[in-house]
Amino acid sequence: MIITIGRLEAYLYNGTFNQIMEREDCVFCKIVSGKVPSARLYEDESVIAILDINPISD
Question: For the chain, what is the domain count?
């Protein structure tokens, strides 16, 4: 199963986010944990804003 932003929001809403953070196929979880490099534009205790690796427009 591919983890999307929508699914992450659902996991956050129903309280199972910690379970999803343990999955190996969750690229967003890897970005948050620092296992995958990212270009972070902004970060605080509840938000991380990153650049898209394949933006639709320049």
Answer: 1
Domain of residue 33: give its range. 5-50
pLDDT at 26 over 80: no
In DSSP terms, 49 is beta-bridged to 42
pTM of the model: 0.53
Task: Kindly state whether residue 21 falls inside one of the protein's structural domains.
Answer: yes
Measured CA to CA, the distance from residue 17 to residue 8 in angstroms comes to: 7
57 occurs within a structural domain: no
Task: Tell whether 24 is covered by a domain.
Answer: yes
User: What are the angstrom distances between the C-alpha of 39 and each of 16, 36, 51?
Assistant: 27, 10, 6
Instruction: Give counts: helices (H), strands (E), the chain.
Output: 3, 2
> Where are any strands of DSSP class E within 1-58?
40-43, 48-50
